[in-house]
């Protein structure tokens, strides 16, 4: 017999089906709650208990610290796969064969040129503009240059949009950074791998030949993989909800980029580095900042710590911490900020406040240290997160379209004034 949950309201009982996922997680299906109870809704600010969709892309167990893309452990993918393989896996559900992988990469390369007029938009931004705002705008502008991308009912046009955005995003990212630095734009080199090409476009200098550093290529590949998807977080839910109105892929992703920008989400990687630099400038007194983080009258939070879902180690943070050590060692860099980060982590893991609240380092705690070693400007950190998260946003948007999900439209509990009469201005 199908399992159900019983809800009792004022003596009347209502049954709701239980839905089980493939990892034995259980949800109460309340689709018919409002209709069957004559108007009752659930209230769950911040959606701490609300499943917005069924998804076959990413499995996350926050209590045990497990993260898997399409069934594959993040640890294994970070070690053995490359970013485009992971992108293919997330978007299409299986690891690509050699043939599928070559075709995918070639299709992306064919789309890796950006219309020259995009430069005019880029030029219109002041140099001080935050790159996340610029990237969000340029991504949205891609729709104007590729009008067929709004056809969300054709699988063929969807595929074109997918390879287009994967092809053009590295160009937009690199150009945004170069414009800020006053460097001439680089058009990339399609004979290179995806990550190599991104690095070349970001770091080449007009007067010298760019030489790839395998340490940086590996580190970047790993970082992009670790950021590639994380199920229904703030930006991904944004992408899905915007796409649920049948808005095109580029518009949906532009909205996701804006959601990622905030310091409580992807913007935390920039905030972490700024925090570590501030602690260093203040004499490296980690205890002082630990006390501030615990003081409820102080708005300061230990950035890069805590997570809505992980109540255990974020598995990505473990991998990134190791990678940070490796990259700094391989590049021969001694960064005092890494020591401050390690010191903070050690103190936090032993501190009752952090232990009680199950606050562990998240993906952003160590990623900035690697970006800094790669000489990526701090303001670009969240943009690097965005390029990593791109396959996840695409996969989630595509899944939502193929499952023909309804438009996302939450309810609310109105707590404002009840009906009242208009008062003319002279009587107020
Ligand atoms: N420093 C100090 N205290 C914290 C921190 C922190 N970083 N994070 C949570 N807490 C405390 C809260 O004050 C709260 O304490 P209380 O129960 O005494 O009131 C308790 O832990 C629970 O915190 P919430 O804010 O309710 O947890 P929520 O799930 O809403 O927030 C979040 C999660 C936003 C990630 C939070 O931990 C945070 O602000 N962290 C710092 C920002 C950050 O690193 N964001 C990146 C997240 S990963 C990502 O998006 C890619």
Automatic annotation (TrEMBL):
Q: Which domain of life is it from?
A: Bacteria
Keywords tagged on the record: Transferase, Tricarboxylic acid cycle
GO terms under biological process: tricarboxylic acid cycle
Associated pathway:
Carbohydrate metabolism; tricarboxylic acid cycle; isocitrate from oxaloacetate: step 1/2
Q: List all membrane-crossing ranges.
A: none
InterPro entries cross-referenced by the UniProt entry: Citrate_synth-like_lrg_a-sub, Citrate_synth-like_sm_a-sub, Citrate_synthase, Citrate_synthase_AS, Citrate_synthase_bac-typ, Citrate_synthase_sf, Citrate_synthase_typ-I
User: Cell membrane: is it a keyword of this entry?
Assistant: no
Residues at the catalytic site: 307, 364
SUPFAM superfamilies the record matches: Citrate synthase
Gene Ontology molecular functions: citrate synthase activity
Signal peptide start and end residues = none
Q: Which CDD domains match?
A: EcCS_like
User: Which reaction equation describes what this protein catalyses?
Assistant: oxaloacetate + acetyl-CoA + H2O = citrate + CoA + H(+)
This protein's GO cellular component annotations are: cytoplasm
Report the NCBIfam families cross-referenced here.
cit_synth_I, PRK05614.1
Family (UniProt): Belongs to the citrate synthase family.
Q: What is this protein called?
A: Citrate synthase
The source organism is Seonamhaeicola aphaedonensis
């Amino acid at each position: 017999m199908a399992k159900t949950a019983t809800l009792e309201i004022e003596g009347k009982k209502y049954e709701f089906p239980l839905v089980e996922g493939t990892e034995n997680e259980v949800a109460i299906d309340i689709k018919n709650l409002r209709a069957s109870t004559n108007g009752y809704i659930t209230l769950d600010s911040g959606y701490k208990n609300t499943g917005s969709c069924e998804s076959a892309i990413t499995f996350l167990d926050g209590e045990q610290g497990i993260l898997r893309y399409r069934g594959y452990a993040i640890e294994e993918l970070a070690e053995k796969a490359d970013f485009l393989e992971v992108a293919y896996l997330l978007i299409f559900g299986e690891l690509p064969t050699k043939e599928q992988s070559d075709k995918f990469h070639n299709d992306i390369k064919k789309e890796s040129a950006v219309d020259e007029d995009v430069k005019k938009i880029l030029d219109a931004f002041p140099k001080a503009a935050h790159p996340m705002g610029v990237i969000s705008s340029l991504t949205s502008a891609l729709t104007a240059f590729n009008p067929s991308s709004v056809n969300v009912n054709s699988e063929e046009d969807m595929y074109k949009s997918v390879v287009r955005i994967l092809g053009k995003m590295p160009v937009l990212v690199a150009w945004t950074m170069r414009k800020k630095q006053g460097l001439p734009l680089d058009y990339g080199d399609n004979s290179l791998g995806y990550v190599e090409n991104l690095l070349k476009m970001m770091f080449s200098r007009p007067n010298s030949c760019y030489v790839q550093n395998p340490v940086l290529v590996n580190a970047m590949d790993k970082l992009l993989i670790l950021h590639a998807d994380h199920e229904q977080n703030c930006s991904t839910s944004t992408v899905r909800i915007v796409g649920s109105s049948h808005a095109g892929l580029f518009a949906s992703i532009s909205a996701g980029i804006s959601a990622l920008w905030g310091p409580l989400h992807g913007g935390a990687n920039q905030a972490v580095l700024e925090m570590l630099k501030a602690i260093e400038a203040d004499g490296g007194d980690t205890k002082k900042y630990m006390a501030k983080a615990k003081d409820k009258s102080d708005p300061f939070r230990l950035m890069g710590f805590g997570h809505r879902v992980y109540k255990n180690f974020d598995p990505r943070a473990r991998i990134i911490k190791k990678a940070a050590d490796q990259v700094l060692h391989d590049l021969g860099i001694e960064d005092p900020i890494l020591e401050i980060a390690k010191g903070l982590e050690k103190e936090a893991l032993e501190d009752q406040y952090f232990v009680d609240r199950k606050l562990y380092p998240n993906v952003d705690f160590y990623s900035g240290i690697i970006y800094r070693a790669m000489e990526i400007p701090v303001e670009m950190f969240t943009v690097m997160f965005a390029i990593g998260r791109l396959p996840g946003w695409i996969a989630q948007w595509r899944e939502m379209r193929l499952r023909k999900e309804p438009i996302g439209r939450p309810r609310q509990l109105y707590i404002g004034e009840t009906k009242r009469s208009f008062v003319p201005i002279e009587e107020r």
